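Protocol step 4 of 6: structure prediction from sequence.
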Amino acid sequence: MAIHKLTDPKIKAKIREIQDLAFSAPKNALVGDGQGLYLSIAKNGTASWLYRYMDHGKAKSVGLGGYPGTTLQKAREKAQALRDARTGGVDPMTAKREAEREKKLQQAKSKTFQTCAEEYIALTRSSWKNAKHAQQWENTLQKIAYPVIGQMPIGAVHASDVVKVLKPIWTSTTETAMRLRGRIESVIDWATAHGMREGDNPARFKGYLEHLLPKLRDSDRHQHHPALPYEELPAFLLKLNEQSGMARYALEFLILCASRTGEVIEATWDELDLDKGIWVIRKERMKAGIEHRVPLGKRALEVLTLVRPFSGAKYVFAGRKKESPLSNMAMSMLIRRMGYADITVHGMRSTFRNWAGEQTTYPFEVCEQALAHRLPDAVAAAYLRTDFYDKRVGLLSDWERFCLSERMI
């Protein structure tokens, strides 16, 4: 079979010929150099090299690059390499795909941990319940993880590197450290699934990091939000009554409803039925992802009536701009101004739970449902088909009466 039929002058002449016949040429022209090497010339004059061959009666082709970027001589060398590969039993198309896959894998492995984390957050953000969750992800990674492993190739992150990130805060701010570990683990799992690294996840705790980090006491693992003793709550609310501003009413409403900060500051008027005295929080806004009904007592309804003239069209507890919700720090700052630097807004839920457990006879499930908690017993939770709303009406009514007991004196 003839080989090396082409020369550069012949190629250039053929390209001009194809361009002149562009309107009548039905498709790309193929010009052979011999033994499977062809130059494919398009109507606009662009050209590229192909190695064509038959594999079990099926025609296949492998691209070798564009002309003149890939010269005639270089194309012949590439074609010969593929012919040699076929002689050795290697399919050129399969070999090229494998080479491209390996190239992409190596490029992916060179991505830094920070780049992978940012891509993971961008892809996952829409599935998170609120912007605060995404902000917490970004803040812990930026402040704690990136300075240590941010610029490392994702494939080069080892357990010793993760330990360097976590060890300084493992026993001092354990809850943050454990959440950060989980976030690092998620990013690395994602990178592994996308072929950016191989092997075990170095951020896995069970059977791995648990042997490399200091042992934790139960008190370290379960850090609770500082809470006000329930005996002091009526006096606290009396003092709160002396304050002014939207945060003052938001905090009272939060306490009366035993709700979370995000649930209150993002509450909208369309969630409220003031005539029936019920607040229905959409499942998208709930931590457990389940719609939550909150019975509203007399004082809770009074609070809503008081804020209505100063509220926006959407949010019940508006921020500085009526179309925006109250800042998630507004109630915390109010508590500090009142001189309670050692308690938190979230701790008010613990205050309610302690009161309900010690001062009432309401069943455990009713008290937990008032806080929109998932039951710790997964089997019991699976069979639960009620939210105990009627019983919670009585529970929150008793709670409101206790909260306002100092005012009634």
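Step 5 (inspection) to follow. The CA atoms of residues 283 and 298 lie 25 Å apart.
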